[in-house]
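Assemble and predict.
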Amino acid sequence: MASVTVTALKKKFGQTEVLKGVDVRVPEGHFAVLVGPSGCGKSTLLRLLAGLEEADTGKIELGDRDVTRLEPRDRNIAMVFQSYALYPHLTVRENLAFGLKLRKTDAAEIEKQVKRASDMLGLGALLDRLPKQLSGGQRQRVAMGRAIVRKADLYLYDEPLSNLDAALRAQVRVDIRKLHDELGATSVYVTHDQVEAMTLADVIFVLNKGQVEQSGAPLEIFDKPATKFVAAFLGSPAMNFVDGALERAESAWVFRAHDLVVPVDEATFAGGLEPGRKVTLGVRPHEVEVAEGGEETTKFVVTVVEALGPETYAHGEIAGAPFIARVDARRSIKKGETLPLVFRSIHLFDAATGTSLRAR
Amino acid sequence: MNKKPSFFESAASHVVLVLAVSFALYPVLWVVALAFSGTQTPSPRVIPVPEAPTLAHLSAVVGATRKVDGVDIWLFGRQLANSLVVSLATALVGVLIAIPTAYALARFRFAGKESGVRALLATQMFPAVASAIPLYMILNYLGLLNSRTGLVVCYASTSVPFSIFQLRAAFEAIPVDLEEAAMVDGATRFSAFVRVVLPAARPAIAVTALFAFMGAYNEFILAATLLDKEEMFTLPVMLQRFIGEYDAQWEKFAAGALVVSLPVMALFYVAQRHLVAGLTAGGVKG
Ligand SMILES: Nc1ncnc2c1ncn2[C@@H]1O[C@H](COP(=O)(O)OP(=O)(O)OP(=O)(O)O)[C@@H](O)[C@H]1O
Ligand SMILES: [Mg+2]
């Protein structure tokens, strides 16, 4: 096992610059998740780590080894493919043993490792089947098994759950985290599912257009997004955005958009506050509450009610922008009702650049 | 789709199948009748059956011998061996050349790839006969007339382009992920090819080899042009010689035709499993 250090990594395909100088550092034993929208270069970064694509410039280190120009087989990396890529002509047992055989492991050791991996993943009954005789979930586990059967320095996962149905995905997600806690293997996991990212990661890297937009612990990124992009990407339902400007009213700062006036805490946003600055207000659906007793920030007309059971989402508009508010499921609200809302926490982003005004 | 067919559906499909099979087999029945008939010219009938059944024609064809350089050789055995050796060698050489070429075309980008493919395709437009005369001259120059090697060279050169196209499609149907997984697992590009791609393409390779074999086994015109010694004949040439200009020995031709078909039938029987798998080769799953 080893840490991973990626420095100023660049990759072009023809004229398209897919990675524009990526820096990633994953400490030994950590589970890193790369998230980002489709086409942002996640798979490309993973393939560069695996050695399946060659970097144009930049450096990839595993521990203290520079592996930037090494062949995949010399990097000692294991990878789980989105398509699983099980060898169709080999049984599950042979699929698991394939990498060990290539590395000239002796038969008894292969037997032992295959047993260990198949016990961990519950593959015992499937060992003599061919991939085509397995269900999707079983194939996924075999693909995982083929990776963990080896003692690799780094484990890579490219959207390993995207071919599973929602229920199975939720379960396997937990299994993967358990497996990681057991093995403590340095891992890089690619997904565009932000729930997977939040629940699995020790550290998240949010990729956008070939660059790391923000990295850090999941909750830190969730609570303090550095850009509007990150704020919009993480969280479901997504953060609400309202465009407006900053104003200084008497002794306090406020955000104003039409008739919406939101107090701004000077300490939190120190340094970014200028009168007239065009900014975007960000409020997560769960950062609002129905106001009790006159502390309301704004009034909110409910146009659609989504009752999910544990919580209810009220849809409407604030200052001309669509807005979703989470309300207590026990409170019965009706379409057309007017709710007094109070914002418990707010985010401010520069309207032009999208960077957060939050003081670092 | 797994519903059991009704009695009517089942009966109707059987009727259609029986009709189709009889239509296909009717001429073959005539050949059988002819091959085993003792009378000189069997009279035409609706249901062909041998008249005065005999094995004479069969044994005359199979038992044919001939003196070469003062030694009696078993002519038919020699001709059968010619056919089998030439066809097997054609299939082998063809597939051995086509596999790496097709793989390169399926997986790599290189200068001249598109024009190369187009040139290969162009060679397919001309019938092999068109090159019979130049081939004759080349083989003559090389001293390969009347030899198995010469025939293999000609056959392979015509079967390779088609084999390449077939195998390229097969390799393209195999997900690149498989090779990449093998390379991450510790394989070189070459061993990933040998251990993962070749086994996954096995059905397609078997079908391609079978096609090349059949093409060579049935080929007549080139063989008739390039061979003039009886002991070097392949079976199709041997067969044709029963139908001379003055007397056509149809019974021997029929008996010979049956014998000649046997190896092919055997081969199809053995290769059946691969054939069915090969024709659905697109179904290779990851
Ligand atoms: N071999 C290639 N040749 C040319 N362009 C490529 C190649 N591979 C990827 N790209 C381009 O690079 C960009 C990033 O691709 P990549 O597969 O890394 O995206 P991704 O973040 O994994 O997206 P997704 O979430 O959809 O899997 C895309 O615009 C894609 O079209
Ligand atoms: Mg991808």
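The domain at 4-223 of chain A is CATH 3.40.50.300 (Rossmann fold).
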